[in-house]
Amino acid sequence: MAHNIIQRSCVINRDIRPFVNFLRKVTVRHGASPRACSFNVQLFRTKSDNSKDVNSLFQPIPFRKQENNADDINIGEELSGEVKKDDLLKLLNQFYRRPEVRRAATENGLDQKLFHQAYISFRQFCLESEMLPADLHIVFSDLLRGAGHVDNLFPYFMKHAKEIFPHLECMDDLRKISDLRLPANWYSEARGIQRKIIIHAGPTNSGKTHHALECFMMAKTGVYCGPLRLLANEVFKKTNDAGTPCDLVTGEERRCSNPDKSPADHVACTVEMCSVTTPYDVAVLDEIQMIKDPQRGWAWTRVLLGICAKEVHLCGEGSAIDLIKQLMLDTGDEVEVRRYKRLTKLNYLNKAVERFENVLAGDCIVCFNKNDIFYVSKQLEKLGIENAVIYGGLPPGTKLAQADKFNDPKHPCKVLVATDAIGMGLNLCIKRVIFYSLMKPNMNQEGEKEMDFISTSQALQIAGRAGRFGTAYETGEVTTFRAKDISLLKEIVSNDISPIEQAGLHPTADQIELFAYHLPHATLSNLIDIFTTLCQLDSECYFMCNMDDFKFLADLIEHVQLPLRVRYVFCCAPIPKKKPFVCTMFLKCARQFSRGEALTLDWICNQLGAPFSIPKTIADLVHLESVFDVLDMYLWLSYRFQDMFPDSELVRDVQKELDLVIQEGVANITRLLLSSESQIPASNIDSIDDVGAQTPKKEKFLVEEDKAYSTDSAEQNNKQSKASGIAKSIQNEKVKGQMSGKLAETLIREGLITSAELEDLYKEWKKKQAIERSIESTNNRRNPKNDPRKKR
Ligand SMILES: Nc1ncnc2c1ncn2[C@@H]1O[C@H](COP(=O)(O)OP(=O)(O)OP(=O)(O)O)[C@@H](O)[C@H]1O
Ligand SMILES: [Mg+2]
């Protein structure tokens, strides 16, 4: 029954997604398969905006009125006499109504909407120009004298249309530039050699990466590409410890192993940073299933197709094998598959933990949001169970310190509370993985956040952290916290992982630059929209990655004067978009850059309020995490614009100190939780930092910006209108007698308004009401007829 409701709902309206999720939850609780429900949501997704009409993305360029000099001669008028504007308007109206004209316009690329816009602009041009071009003037004059046909205006109309819609002249070029149908051909270096692709496929903890790394270390030259900085760091250390000099390259960090700083023959990097023009003997591309990631998948595709290495080792789930084989038909590379079995046992328990009192040494409780992390941690502390905490937003040093504490057999901390940040990378001594919940916020291909049951692949990845080979616990256990989740978990992990069907792609800076050359008036975000709508790809094997985060940043700095290349690079920076403070700093950096002023250590420290003190509350901790992200952004940009970000080394030192300060805060997390007991700002902690950034509303940043740039009138207006909008909503809500209603709660939670501001608004509203009432009663006294009481 509910099953059918879901299916119907899907077709009706995409905005009811939360309702569908709720229904799905209820359905699964009542015994339906989560897989069946996932399928229904898939139906939902296929009804997305792919059909978006490209013409709707083109904005007309307002035509510029020609300034005439007093002594300019109106040749048209000299030759054929004056044309009255009224007569001209009649002719234009006739022209607009002609079906033949519309047909011809369509043939020339103007759909109904563009035709209408072009006509409005053409009419304005004809009526407002003091002097029309001579030939057009003569055509009008002839028409008025009954000579010729109104259709004769069409070439002049089309000329005007092409001026305000420059894409009409270059659609073929735009289509060629955005043709992504044969991505294998983009990498001439890789196509110039015969490569051998070795797929290491198997479950977690089966030695896939280990075997690939053996080949990497034995090779004369090699590159390792991992999904996380921590993983790249681990390989960097492992390789150097094994006596093979290896460099580290991540977005924010470069480390050389050779004392003379010359590049080593081996390099460990994050996938996005891998060079596809440097030749290597061996390349390792880890966690290959990430090729399907809606946001980052393109980076795996790029390395897979483009890496110039004789041997390419891919490690990950077997679900990627068929797709890889398919893609390699285009590259002509040889493919070999090596399958692995799990090295240790993993038992799924029949009993849930249910009570915090039942938590044991070696347990790792996995949560999917920070609220749960803090709650669980606090409950354990109340019982005197010391615990380490790891979530995605923590600095790497802090994560490692927490992991070390948990792994150290001599340390009393024997329990870990973590998000699925531990799903990839860290080597942890976990005996039992306990799923605190099975629902997780996910980013879909359209960049929307949706609550969903964890996928089979995610569940297996996380569960597989228990009983890691070579640790104290060689038999792992997996269970849930709540009894009702046990059967659901079993069902999820018993499903087959569906084969990966498509690999991600995204436009390159060169392609966007070419687009900008053809469409010089379009904004960067608009260029991306046009590109993604126009582009052609082989949808059997590829999909276009979601670019919403990029577009969000592009919109944020649209009004800042920057060359396109610089703007593009800025928008590629790793910014957690859900953190208003980081986004505000991003905007400030772009402004400083645009003014040509270097972003020095002093400048950035001033902005961030360094030096930093140890956090006293969770809110302090969350703020320091944002500060850490800003320093990451600085370092990332410093590798692209060294002149403008000259103090990267000093900033790195500041960041290391901050990592220690945060470490100390996290070490005392119970104290922080207790001192924050009264009010934890939910907007800050209810995040989904481990699944990608959620794009917040842009207005949020403008409010923060206002504080710093109160002279900026546009933003000031924005703030005022937003404040009045909020006030109105609150007033409406209060009118309904819901002072502590949902809207107020949401506004506070979203950080759009504080409780004190809400209180002020309430007082203001009461005052206003009192004034209105007194005016009304005065009026009624003056004019008793208006008094509704009297009427009654
Ligand atoms: N043959 C081996 N000899 C020694 N240690 C090994 C061997 N195989 C694996 N290991 C160790 O076992 C642990 C798990 O191996 P590895 O990281 O390669 O697994 P994986 O299959 O890549 O797991 P995941 O899917 O979680 O990435 C690592 O610490 C690794 O060093
Ligand atoms: Mg691995």
UniProtKB/TrEMBL annotation:
Cofactor annotation: Mg(2+); Mn(2+)
Pfam families named in the record: DEXQc_Suv3, Helicase_C, SUV3_C, Suv3_C_1, Suv3_N
Catalyzed chemical reaction(s): ATP + H2O = ADP + phosphate + H(+)
Ranges for domain Helicase C-terminal: 348-516
Catalytic activity, EC: 3.6.4.13
GO CC aspect terms: mitochondrion
CDD domains xrefs: DEXQc_Suv3, SF2_C_suv3
InterPro entries: DEXQc_SUV3 (IPR055206), Helicase_C-like (IPR001650), P-loop_NTPase (IPR027417), RNA-DNA_Helicase (IPR050699), SUV3_C (IPR022192), Suv3_C_1 (IPR041082), Suv3_DEXQc (IPR044774), Suv3_N (IPR041453)
Chain intervals for the UniProt region annotation (Disordered): 770-792
SMART domains: HELICc
Molecular function GO terms recorded: ATP binding; hydrolase activity; RNA helicase activity
Entry keyword annotation includes Cell cycle: no
PANTHER family: ATP-DEPENDENT RNA AND DNA HELICASE, ATP-DEPENDENT RNA HELICASE SUPV3L1, MITOCHONDRIAL-RELATED
Name of protein: RNA helicase
Organism of provenance: Sinanodonta woodiana (Chinese pond mussel)
